């Protein structure tokens, strides 16, 4: 929609593109800033409230139709990115809880392909709308699916978290009554966590090697060294390795799909292709056969690779 917004905001094309950059910045910053909240109120609650916040941001963007609304529109895109990425990130936790180790590869592959399909599919549908409607409708149409998703999450999503450490006492079972269970899971959701407080979110124990007096075996004993979890964890070797893989497999396709319109809908005079929103939507559909093939390979061939490993 960025080309269609130029007459509204009286800005240059480069200025309008900053809204796309703001959304991508939110995608990257959201997990660092907001994922730790799931340790306080639970994953399920964060997913539901992030969907509500995403819907508010979409309505916010759709209402920014005045000539002086450019900065608020960019801020709405930033906030949209901060909250909109959270369900995609937290969903991996359910896979870790519900699938055995040899099944997780297939589950993660299907999960990531579904996210890529959603990014491309929403852009395609938005292009069809932008061709015949004003650009705010590109944001308004997402409210319906978001409301439907919120209803499905509130009705069916169950908390699957548990601590595998045999020496740790897990949380008490949630109530069986549906209404009481929903309240405990989402409002605010503190009953689904394992007694973690705000202090635990900013403390990362430093483990020192000590010897026991009984059998001289070396064990780990935690000290009270303080630091920030979200800052320290991403720089561990395993997180760097896995993060690089996820960036290549998931983030690059999402970024490519997000900025494709910048090159296709830019005017020919500005070294672009001059595509209309409809042409851009049809161009994005060329990704669908590839996604279908990848979905099949992930579902049918992943068990074979797991057996080889």
Task: Write up what this structure looks like.
The protein is mostly helical and 309 residues long. The protein is built from 16 helices and two strands. It has helices at residues 6-9, 13-34, 38-41, 43-63, 70-84, 86-98, 104-132, 136-140, 143-156, 178-186, 198-201, 229-232, 237-264, 277-284, 287-300, 302-308; strands spanning 207-211, 218-222.
List the helices and strands and how they pair.
Blueprint: H1 6-9, H2 13-34, H3 38-41, H4 43-63, H5 70-84, H6 86-98, H7 104-132, H8 136-140, H9 143-156, H10 178-186, H11 198-201, E1 207-211, E2 218-222, H12 229-232, H13 237-264, H14 277-284, H15 287-300, H16 302-308
Antiparallel strand pairs: 1-2
Helix pairs in contact: 2-5, 4-5, 4-6, 4-9, 6-7, 7-13, 7-14, 7-15
Helix- and strand-based class? mainly alpha
Low-confidence stretches: 201-227, 305-309
Evaluate the radius of gyration: 23 Å
Shape: globular
Strand order in the largest sheet: 1-2
How far from one another are the termini?
A: 46 Å
- Bin the helical content: 55-70%
Element string (H = helix, E = strand): HHHHHHHHHHHEEHHHHH
The biggest sheet amounts to:
2 strands, antiparallel
Q: Which whole number gives the mean pLDDT?
A: 76
Instruction: Tally the helices.
Output: 16
**How big a fraction of the residues is strand?**
under 5%
Instruction: Give the strand tally.
Output: 2
